[in-house]
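Hey, quick one: can you model this chain's 3D structure?
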Amino acid sequence: MIANELRKAYIDFFVERGHAEIPSASLVPENDPSVLFTTAGMHPLVPFLKGEPHPSGTRLVNVQKCLRTGDIDGVGDDTHLTFFEMLGNWSLGDYFKQEAIQYSFDFLTTKLGVPTDRLAISVFAGDADAPFDQESYDRWIACGIAPERIAKLGKEDNWWPAGGKNPGPQGPDTEMFYWTGAEPVPKTFDPSDKQWVEIWNDVFMEFDRQTDGTFAPLSQKNVDTGMGLERTTAVLQGKTSVYDTERFTPIIHAIEETSQTAYVTHKRSMRIIADHVRTSVMLVSDGVHPSNKDQGYILRRLIRRAVRQLHQLNDREHGIGSVVDACIETLEPSYPVLQQRQSEIQEVIAHEVAAFEKTLTKGLRAFDKLFASSGYVGGEEAFTLFSTYGFPLELTEELVREKGMGVDKEVFVAQFQKHQDISRSGSEKKFAGGLADHSDESKKLHTATHLLHQALKMVLGDHVAQKGSNITQERLRFDFSHDAKMTDDEKREVEKIVNEQIQKKLPVSFKVLSVDEAKKKNAIGLFEDTYAHIGGKVKVYTIGDAKRGVFSREICGGPHVENTGDLQAFALTKEEASSAGIRRIKAVVGDSARKALSIKNR
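Sure thing. Here's the predicted structure for all 602 residues.
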C-alpha cells in the first residue's frame, strides 16, 4: 500500500463511521506565539477540545501537516523527519475509549490486513495523578491482544503531552506497535526493542492541567489519535526506512542525478537533503520566508544544511532546483497548491541558496584568517564561525582535518548549548496545549488584523489579499499582496481608518455559516482555504452592526475581542517587502500604539 492509498483508506474508514473530514491547518499556527510550528494534529483543535462547539460536529478526521524541529539533528537515520503528515481522528465529547480502541483495531486488522500476531500495545500504568488505565487494557484483551503483549508504562511513554508537565488538555494514551523484525514474532512485548515500531497513538483527553500543577476534569471527554503517514507506509511495505518508500525515492533519485553520486554510498547526506528540501518546500508554500528569526530561521537553517550536504557530495553548483521540483511532484497529489506556487517556491529557495554562497565565501575567508593568526581553529573558533557567518561545523571540521588537526566538539557543543538555551526561551517551546493566547493582548491584535486588512483594501484597492499573519504578545505581522512600497500618505490613511473604527467602539460577533451564505455576505476569505472546508461550514466574524454599518466581515477561527474599543489605539511600526509582490506590515495596539503615534506626531 502506497502513502496516498493509506491516506484515502484512513479518511474513508472514519467518514463511513460518521466523521467529518476537515482540512489540514497551516504549518504556522495562526494565533499561538508559544510555538513556531504545528507539531501535532491536536494543535489547531485545542479550543474545541476545551468545549467550544466545532462547526463540523463531534466526530472529525483529517491529515495534518506537522513539523518538529527537535528532530533536525536526527534526520539521516531510517525514521526521523522534520516535516511529516499525521493521520488523525477525533471525538469531541462523543465516543471514548471503548469505541476508539475498537476503531483502531478494526482499521489495522480489517482495513489494512495487519496480523494481530504482529501487534503489541502499551497503556498508562497509573500514578498519583491518574489511575491505571484498566478500561483500555480490558478493551485490548477483548480485541484478542494477549496480556504479555501489553506493556504498562508511565507518563513519559503513555501520556500526552509526554510527561504531563505542561498546562492544557491532556490525558493517558494507548500506543500500537508493529513487529518489523524477522519471524518468529516474540511472544512478549519489550518496548525497548527497536524492532517494535510505534504506528498509532490514541490519546484520551479528560484532564486540563492547571498552571499550579493540579489536574481538573475537562468539560467533555475527548479522543485524539495520531498515525504517522510516512512511518506506517514504510511498515506496511516492509521497509526499514521511510526513505525507501515512494514518498522519497523520486527525490533521492533527483539528488543522485544532480550530484552524480550514488545513494547507496551517501545515504545520510541524501536523506538530509531530501528531508530538508521537502520541508522547505512545504514551509514556503505556507508563507514562510528565510530570515534570522522564528520560522524563517528554521527555514534558513534547513536550506543551508541541505546546501552543505550537496557540497559534501561535490555538487558545487548546488543544483537544488531539480530536488525542489521532485519534492513538489511527490507531494502535489495531496497538496495541489504546490504546483500553483512552484515558481515562488523555487525563487525563494534559490535566493537563499545564492545568499548562502556568499556566507560560504565569507566563512572560508574568516577561517583562513583565524588559522593564519593562530595556527589553530578549535571549538570556540568553530562556534564563532558558526554564529557569526552561519558557517556549518561540519565544514569547519573538514577544513581542519585537511590541516591534519581536529576540532574540540565538546567546546563547540558547550558554546552552542549556551546560545541555544538563551534563544530557546523566546523561540520554540514544547506544545503545552492551547491557543496560547486566548490572552487579552492576543485577542486585541487578532481583531486589529481584521481592521487592518479592510483598511488596506480601502486605501490600496481590492487586489489586497492576506498572504500570511503572525501574532505575538507584543505585535501583529501581516503579509499582503501589493506590488509597490506604501507611501507615507497611504500608511497614515490606513492608521486613521483603523483608529476611527476603534473609537467607534464597534461590536465584534461571529456566526457559523455555509460557504454559500458567507459568499453572499461578501465575507473576506479564500474559499479554497482551510475554513471553507470545515464540514461545509465557516466561522464568519463581523465588525460592526446594522445600526452603525458593517466595517469588516471575514472568515476566521478567532479569538477576538467583543468590542473594537478594547484596542484603544493602533499604529503601524514597519512596512517592508516580504517577497516579490508581497508587502509586510508590523503594528501594535494599546499603550504601545499610543506611544508610537505620539512619537510620529512630534
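One thing worth noting: The mean pLDDT is 87.
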